[in-house]
UniProtKB/TrEMBL annotation:
<protein>
    <recommendedName>
        <fullName>Ubiquinone biosynthesis O-methyltransferase</fullName>
        <ecNumber>2.1.1.222</ecNumber>
        <ecNumber>2.1.1.64</ecNumber>
    </recommendedName>
</protein>
<keyword id="KW-0830">Ubiquinone</keyword>
<feature type="binding site">
    <location>
        <position position="80"/>
    </location>
    <ligand>
        <name>S-adenosyl-L-methionine</name>
    </ligand>
</feature>
<dbReference type="InterPro" id="IPR010233">
    <property type="entry name" value="UbiG_MeTrfase"/>
</dbReference>
<dbReference type="GO" id="GO:0061542">
    <property type="term" value="F:3-demethylubiquinol 3-O-methyltransferase activity"/>
</dbReference>
<feature type="binding site">
    <location>
        <position position="125"/>
    </location>
    <ligand>
        <name>S-adenosyl-L-methionine</name>
    </ligand>
</feature>
<dbReference type="GO" id="GO:0032259">
    <property type="term" value="P:methylation"/>
</dbReference>
<comment type="pathway">
    <text>Cofactor biosynthesis; ubiquinone biosynthesis.</text>
</comment>
<comment type="similarity">
    <text>Belongs to the methyltransferase superfamily. UbiG/COQ3 family.</text>
</comment>
<comment type="function">
    <text>O-methyltransferase that catalyzes the 2 O-methylation steps in the ubiquinone biosynthetic pathway.</text>
</comment>
<dbReference type="Pfam" id="PF13489">
    <property type="entry name" value="Methyltransf_23"/>
</dbReference>
<feature type="binding site">
    <location>
        <position position="39"/>
    </location>
    <ligand>
        <name>S-adenosyl-L-methionine</name>
    </ligand>
</feature>
<keyword id="KW-0949">S-adenosyl-L-methionine</keyword>
<keyword id="KW-0489">Methyltransferase</keyword>
<keyword id="KW-0808">Transferase</keyword>
<keyword id="KW-0831">Ubiquinone biosynthesis</keyword>
<dbReference type="InterPro" id="IPR029063">
    <property type="entry name" value="SAM-dependent_MTases_sf"/>
</dbReference>
Amino acid sequence: MDARLNADAAELAKFSELAHRWWDPDSEFRPLHQINPLRLGWIESLAGPLRGRAVLDVGCGGGILAEAMARQGGDVLGIDLADKPLKVAQLHALEQQVANVRYRAVSAEALADEQPGTFDVVTCMEMLEHVPDPASIVNACARLVKPGGWVMFSTLNRNPKAFLFAIVGAEYVLRLLPRGTHEYRKFIRPSELAGWARQAGLDVRALRGLTYNPLTQRYALASDTSVNYLMATQRGQG
């Protein structure tokens, strides 16, 4: 792998090994299927309807969010550096006859050099905590979005509660995720993400938490950002 790529080879391999299970709603990716309607509704509540707009999903994996945004009428490009999940995403879109979603194996930084200021909406969900240099991804997303366009992030907070809930609870106790899915040291505080966003020319517009109730086995958007959170940013018009 090109050492200049902002990617962790072990992380790419980890998700590639599970690629064939990406669209199984009862697999290791069940949490992504469960939170997807929440993510999609949140995106459109802030950025507006996606129909007819150019949308980019950075770190799209098997295409769960990218395909959902295409079903809302967006002209969607999903990018990732893991080939197997991309092939799964492409095949699923063909099977479901979702024509307005495309996929490419390209880094966010390379695409930003190639197509700056191209997209109305850029999403980067559950991805920043898996790369060596998340600030570089944030900067690339800012370069990719049009002036006035929206960039949406979601990731994990870094504090003792997040370690307890996201790693001990989710991976070892409740087994919602495979063990080793996350590394605590890669978690990102909202203040850190907001700082990178501002440095890249993005204004923070909204911050929302994503919580899980083990009794009802349901996820919900909430004010509690101590574990999972979503951040909406907007590029200035200038």
